[in-house]
Amino acid sequence: MSYKILTRCPVCSSSLKVIKLKCTNCNTVIENEFELSKLSNLTEDELNFVEVFIRSRGNIKDVEKELGISYPTVRAKLDEVIASLGYNVPKPKQNTNNKEILDMLDKGEITAEQAIEMLKE
After folding, report:
1. Using an 8 Å Cβ cutoff, are 10 and 26 in contact?
2. For 21, left (φ over 0), alpha (ψ -120 to 50), or beta?
3. Which one of 23, 36, 60, 118 has the fewest beta carbons within 10 angstroms of its own beta carbon?
4. pTM as predicted
């Protein structure tokens, strides 16, 4: 039986390091301090979102359909993942102009209903 690797200490929430690796075939054991991928810091929900996003080739409309969420929610989840990976999240523009909204609609990034809502704002 195998378990998902812990990335945070259950006592103090600090980052954990992998110090031992073992081959399941020949039982070779290697000990050292190994770095984990930045992706290992993502929650299950964030990893699921990343998988859907990649499968959808970054097409937000497809992500919306598969997860049953709105365009703004997809963008918020993407920002959450970016922050969890340790990158700066760009601040959203205060007022998206009409041309940008129509461009997003034309590219299929948002639905007509979402465009209407954004234009109302």
Report:
1. no
2. beta
3. 23
4. 0.61
